[in-house]
Amino acid sequence: MGPALFVLALSLCGFDANSSPLSSSPHSSSCPAGALELSPEELAKQANIQKLAGLSNDELKPLSEPIISPGTPRFELINKVASSVTAQETSSQARENAIVVLRGEISSVDDPLLYNLVAKEAWLVIIPKNKLLTDLPMFSYYQGRKTADGRLWNDIRGVANVDYRDKVYAATGEENLLGKESFSGYKPYFTLVHEWAHMIHLVAMPIWSGDAPVNQINVTRAYQDAVKNKRPFPDSYARQNSMEFFAQCAAIWFAVPYVDSAQGETLNAEWLAKYQPLMFDLLLATFGPPRSITPNANLFSWFKFY
Prior knowledge:
This protein is an alpha/beta fold. It has 10 helices and 6 strands.
């Protein structure tokens, strides 16, 4: 299996101000469906992973590949990934907050996955409050184009896994990084946590990693288990596919859920342990203990079973 299979080159989950569950818009219950923009080739890759997820671990062993793991100190590695924030024409506070949250999200991610982000030149772009996503060169291809559900990409405020000139980009709006609910309607830092979870899943994770649990096939297996066993999803957007399932659950893990409750219960790691045990185990293996990672958060405020 060649290196190209390590990355699914997708433009994922577009968030805009009109799709907020916190607003009074027609889409108040969830993100609108159809935000994924998948080429036929990308759809084929996703279908291939779904097929692979049905194989046993022994059948998958021939597909295992080593992931990039040169030996450098972990502290410098985390800082290198966290400093991959480009923020022209945005406030210094937004960039500082983005680095804090990004560092918190990756602080327990295993070195090989972080090396993959570095080797593949993964970057986080902050979209200035006074600019559109498509004003930025790495996203200009989408200028005037529409998402599958008919929204303009110009208005999208969060995206991930976009290839441009041998780099791969995620983006979040500046307004989501200033510590208060803004015109986008999402909880502070939600879009950053969600989009970077896509980067961990689709850029950092190998498709298969043998006995190591953190890989794309196990994300798909957790999603298939939830569908097959009719487990409750945290929201309708998470139900769409394995990619959004992982990213929405990661936001819960880091205490910035898309919505506050499901099944009449608060959305937190305890909810995931109760209703989505495979995803709980995968998030624990990927990110370490559940916690708040927003600026000024108590970094030791684990949930009660920790």
